[in-house]
Amino acid sequence: MNLLNVQNKVLVTGGTGMVGRAMQEIMPNANYVGSQYDLTKFEQTTELFLKFKPEYVIHLAARVSGMKGNMDAIGEHYTENVLMNTNVLEVSRIFNVKKLLSVLSTCVYPDNANFPLVEEDIHQGEPHSTNLGYGFSKRMVDVQARAYRRQYSCDYINIVPNNLFGEHDNFHLVKSHVVPSVIRKVYEAKRNNTPLVLWGDGSPLREFTYSKDLGKIIIFAFNKYSGEHPINVGNPGEHSIKELAEMICEIMEYKEPIMWDTTVSNGQPRKPSSNKKFLDLGWKNENYTDFKVAIEDTCEWFLDNYPKVRGVE
Ligand SMILES: NC(=O)c1ccc[n+]([C@@H]2O[C@H](COP(=O)([O-])OP(=O)(O)OC[C@H]3O[C@@H](n4cnc5c(N)ncnc54)[C@H](OP(=O)(O)O)[C@@H]3O)[C@@H](O)[C@H]2O)c1
Hints:
Elements: E1 10-13, H1 18-26, E2 31-33, H2 42-52, E3 56-59, H3 67-72, H4 74-94, E4 99-103, H5 132-152, E5 156-160, E6 163-165, H6 178-192, E7 196-199, E8 205-206, E9 208-210, H7 211-224, E10 231-232, E11 239-240, H8 241-251, E12 258-261, H9 276-280, H10 291-305
Parallel strand pairs: 1-2, 1-3, 3-4, 4-5, 5-10, 6-9, 7-12
Antiparallel strand pairs: 8-11
């Protein structure tokens, strides 16, 4: 089965978000929904499935934030995501969905895990304290998927990307992730002639995957993988926040110094992940878009669309 050949039977939750919008370009004839059906509610989730009667589900919907947004609303991230995931996986079972793919995050990994992060270690300790609610809520998808596979033979798979960025990201000053946050701050510092102040000291190392690549990865994993364990799929290769910030300043032609606000937490120093199992399925590292090219495309999209971008309007 090739998912691209059965697009009208596919339901994509979270279809209005960053990754959902990337998938719309690859799979234009699938069914995309945002929060008009509130997936934290069982009844609304059932109504959604009654409307579309999907045979295949890509579950992207989630309460998603960067580090500060996660810390400020740690309980909401836990409860909303647990409710959404529980409902989508349970209603998919009730409607005899043939296959479902959910998206976890490297935030699920324990704070004290060995590097690189490997799938076997997901439950071997608590997530970093900044991610406690989001991290555990996403881990529960793994638990529910495995339990349903064992009891009901549900073909539910989970992929684990690292930090995502791209067009249609959330550029909110508090709730965004590092890439959109830095793009917006550099742009506004240049436009307003104000100092560029970024959080932390710039030393943490992160891996990044372009949202358009994740769209392709989702199709690839859906077609090729059917195991009970989550699989890391992110673009490996660490970049410091300082390197990222300097790259964005160069692309946006911002020449003033960067000021680092070290009163704000750095978060985890690093969390490199191994995508070996994904490569064993036939994915190639060359399939990921070059990091700088993807950042350039994202900056260009931001400049073309500001201020009509999510989190600014
Ligand atoms: N962004 C990252 O860095 C990152 C990294 C690793 C994993 N992930 C995972 O990747 C997936 C996609 O992330 P993303 O960045 O595309 O997220 P996003 O841009 O924030 O989009 C979130 C989507 O979820 C929907 N949603 C939120 N609350 C909902 C609710 N109560 N009921 C129904 N739908 C709801 C939103 O609908 P509306 O548009 O209507 O609000 C939107 O379509 C998520 O599962 C996320 O956890 C993201």
